Every structure is written in structure tokens, then in C-alpha cells.
Amino acid sequence: MKNLFRSLAAVALAVAGLLAVVSAPASAGTTKNKSVVCYRLQSNKVQSKRYETKGGVCPKGWSKHKPKPKTTSTTIAGGLQGSNKSGDIDLVVPSSVSLEINGSSFDAPMVGATTSGSTGYTAGGKVSFSSYPAAGSGAGRTSITNGSVSIGFSDQPMTPSAGTLPSGAVEANYVQVPYILGGAVVGYNLGSSLNDIKLTTNEVAKIFDGQITQWSNLAIINTNGGLSSTTGKALQALYTSNSPTDTIKVIYRSASSGTTYAFTDWLHASGGSTHTPSGNPMEGSGNAWHATNILGAANNAALATDINANPGSIGYIEYSYLLIPGNAAIQSASLQDREGQWLQPTLTNIAAAAAAAGTNITPDSFSIVNQAGNNVWPLATYSWAIVLKNQTDEATGEAIVKYLDWETHYAQSALAKAEGYVPLPAAVAAYSRQQLMNVTSGGAVLLTKTT
Questions:
Q1: What domains can be seen in the chain, in order of their start residue?
Q2: What is the pTM of this model?
Q3: Is the pLDDT of residue 79 over 70?
């Protein structure tokens, strides 16, 4: 009887096991793929993607939970900083201050538009600025390092490798911020019948080095179509008529100049000159360039005036000065891009130079002349604002960095084109903000202060 009971129990267990197997889901032992939406932060932006995965598990680096962007200087106050809108903390400073400024004449139109008049930065009437002498990039660098200005402007940052760091200054004590993007031109005055002269970099270099002294030089005539061309005949006529305009007067910057640095950098980078790039005066006693029929000008504005006043003259000036009504007599030479195409300067091809150079612009990598590509203006440059890294006066320091953040964001879209500049690329504007975050007073970061 006992054996019969055991046999029946074994049979029951076997049947139960068989039923369990039959009734088990077909997917037992495997996991079905499930559709799931996964999230991650990439460059502080939320990305989402739908995956078909086993068990609905997100891949490594992704999560089912939607993350929140990290609060940084670029997202503070709901992304309003630098917008010039209500809630923009760049418009709020703790007390009234007056900021002393000097430096690059290349920057002068934009500096004027953002520090004075109806478009100027005031932070509710609490921030004012000194007049802007536009004494040149060299003055901007020496003025900030000797403590006589709040902001120094220079077309080149201060670096030992570029030879732009004033004697005794320590680069690490300063923050250097890309401020504007613009271009320079080779301007001349030959009258309306010769309003589109082409000049190679080698010809420009020889003019400034005293090796080409007349507009009727055969090299210039050949570059412009030869003796049988309309332009060639007009240039030759300057010689045959013994016109005083045929004699080239070289106008150069008589003090340390960022425009001079960009100009000589372009000539050197394009193979037109063997002279080392420098912001020092090109002509005169003790310098390497050798033109003799010369006239020195203090800044871009003075150089433009001198070209206007001297038929036959040539000089280099910032593009925005061509837009000033009183400079209508200044003509801009056509220059070749790196591919050999002849160009007139425009904001579009100046912007193309920045795009070709990329956005990795730093004090140690700042030159954007002679970039590769078609329709790329060869003589483009950034200009920089330089400030003391550790501010002794907190209110002054806060006004400095908030003005510069406002200028490198809102003012770029609102004012730059009208003043003859290209708005800073977004990545370069972000770099400017990143640099401004390094300015402190008593250990406190000034750019994000809300009171």
C-alpha cells in the first residue's frame, strides 16, 4: 500500500511538472526587446533617443530619467545673461562707477557705440566711461599693465611669443577676451578712374619697403591687365602726363599698432614679405621697412584722413573706416585670397576667414590672416579686451566684466554689423564668457554676482 502511494505521488509530481512546462511562457529563459526612451546630457544639452533593448534597459551613458542641464554662467538667470532683456544680470551693478578705457583704434567704432550715446552700456545709469583716445593697441596694453585704465583694447593679446607683452608684465595676471571680429584693407587714393586696383602681396610689400615707388610700375600694370587694358592705360597715363599722383606716398602708423601687426602678419603669412610680423612702426629710423616718401599717422582715423588728403597715397586701415561718409575718397585695393581669387572686402568674406580659422582662438593662437578657402578675406583679425584678473575694487570689477559680457553677446547681434564688424562666432563669444569667469575680487567670481 505504501509503495502504491509513493507511485501515485511520483506520477502526480511528474504531471504537475509537465503542466508547468506546457504553461510556461515561450520567452522563459530569454528577455524580450522593449522600446524605451533614453536621455543624456551632451554639451550641457538634453538629448533623447528611443532604443529597442533587452528588458528596456538604456545603454551605458544614457538614462530613463530626463536630466536637467547644469547651471553654469551660460544658463544663469534662465539664459538671460548677456541678452539685454529684463532679468539680465549684466545690467545690474552694485554702485556707480566710471571706467577708464584706451587702446586699439581698430576697435574705436564699436567701443564708441557700446560706451556712449543711446546704444551705450550704462547698467541703469550706474556705469559711465571715459572718452576713448584710440591711441593704438600698444597703448592699450601698456595702459592696462601700468594700471591707468580699467580696460585695455588691443588687436593682439599680450603674449611673449608675439612680442606684445609689455616689459615687466606677467601674462597670468590678466584676462584677455575676444572683443570684435573685423578686417583691414589696403586703402589708396587714385581718383574714380582707377577705383579697382589689384595688388599682390609682393607688390604691397615692395611699396612699403621702398622698392616700388610709382603707380605706373610695370609689375602693377601687368597685375591689372597689362598695357593694353583700360586700367593699365590709366596707370601708364599717370607716368606719361607726369602726374604727381603717380608718386606713391606711403602712410603708416607712427606708434605701436595692432593694425600694423595684422598687416605685416598678412604680408608674411602670404609669402609677400620676409619681414617678421610686428606692431612697431614700419618706417623711419631703426625699423626694417624702407619706403622714404612716407607720412606717419597716429591711429586709423588719422590714417584715413591722410589717405583722403593725399592723391597717390596708400595705407592700411580697418574696414569700418571705409563706411564713414567723410572717407568716401578712399578706395580699397582688391587682394587675393589664399586660392588666388581677387576679392573686395565684405563682412561675408571677413566672416569666412574666421570660419576657416576655426573657433579655437586663444592668446597663444590668435592669427586668422591668409586662411585657406575660396572667398576668404586674407586680412582679417580679432581684437581683444584686456583686464586685470584680480580686481582690487569689487564694484569696478563687476562693472568691467558685465559690460564685456554684454558687449560680446547682445551688442554683437545688435551693433556689430552696423559698425562694420562681423558678430563674434557663438563659440568665440562663449570663450569670452569663460575667460571673464576668471575675473575675481577677494576670491569672488564677479560675472555671476546678482547684487
A1: 32-67 (no CATH), 83-181+383-445 (3.40.190.10), 184-357 (3.40.190.10)
A2: 0.82
A3: yes
